[in-house]
Amino acid sequence: MVMMKHPFLSFTLLLIVFFSSTTTLAQKSPAPAPSTDTAPTDIIRILKKAGGFTTLIRLLQTTQVSTQINSQLLNSNGGLTLFAPNDNSFSSLKPGFLNSLSDEQKNKLIQFHLLPTFVSMSNFDTLSNPVRTQAGDDPYRLGLNVTSSGNQVNMTTGIVNVTVGGTVYTDHQLAVYQVDKVLLPRDFFVAKPPAPAPAPEKTKSSKKKSSDSDGGSCRRR
């Protein structure tokens, strides 16, 4: 007696073999390597994402300090720290203050909010006062005095007293901290001492008299 093969059974066995082979190949295929590409740090993108820093963003762009910050982060290992006043901080300034500043002063104002090193919230107590900013080396006119206790950080410029409100961004190379006031340097408000007057030069007539006097004394000898 000849038994006929059931066509449905043969088809089922074929499907089992096919899917088994496919699963085996999938398991042997290497998984794609994770992408290691990371976008460079962009201070404007960071502040836009945080929100509430419209005036600071505009100043960073018009002074081109934003480009400088991004370049420094790419080309230095020391990092940077930015104290970021929010829009309410700028609104509390005297009306017309920003418009009264020259382009050079606006640049200096933003540089005054930058420290040339990365400082974590827990390391402010290691700084030596007055703290140097990127606005310049004059400790009296362009320095900050910082006091900290735990996570409470306060600063004084000699014009305003400022409190660090919290961390906006940190990646161990760039730290951005929100502050409750715009940091105003003494340099904008304290008159600079007058430059020393140059030493008076001898006139030609006095030089001639002196020469004649020396010659006369020589002849008398």
UniProtKB/TrEMBL annotation:
Q: Which InterPro entries does UniProt cross-reference here?
A: FAS1_dom_sf, FAS1_domain, FLA_A
Q: Which domain of life is it from?
A: Eukaryota
The main location class comes to: membrane
Occurrences of domain FAS1 (ranges): 40-183
Biological process annotations from GO: plant-type secondary cell wall biogenesis
Enumerate the residue ranges of region (Disordered): 190-221
**Keyword field:** Cell membrane, Glycoprotein, GPI-anchor, Lipoprotein, Membrane, Proteoglycan, Signal
For this protein, the record's SMART domains field holds: FAS1
Bilayer topology term? Lipid-anchor; GPI-anchor
Signal sequence bounds? 1-26
Q: Which Pfam families match?
A: Fasciclin (PF02469)
* Keyword Lipoprotein carried by entry: yes
Subcellular location, record wording: Cell membrane
Residue spans of biased composition, Basic and acidic residues class: 201-212
Report if keyword Glycoprotein is assigned: yes
Q: Name one GO cellular component term.
A: side of membrane
Q: Which PANTHER family does the annotation name?
A: FASCICLIN-LIKE ARABINOGALACTAN PROTEIN
- What role is this protein assigned? May be a cell surface adhesion protein.
Q: Which family does it belong to?
A: Belongs to the fasciclin-like AGP family.
Name of the featured protein: FAS1 domain-containing protein
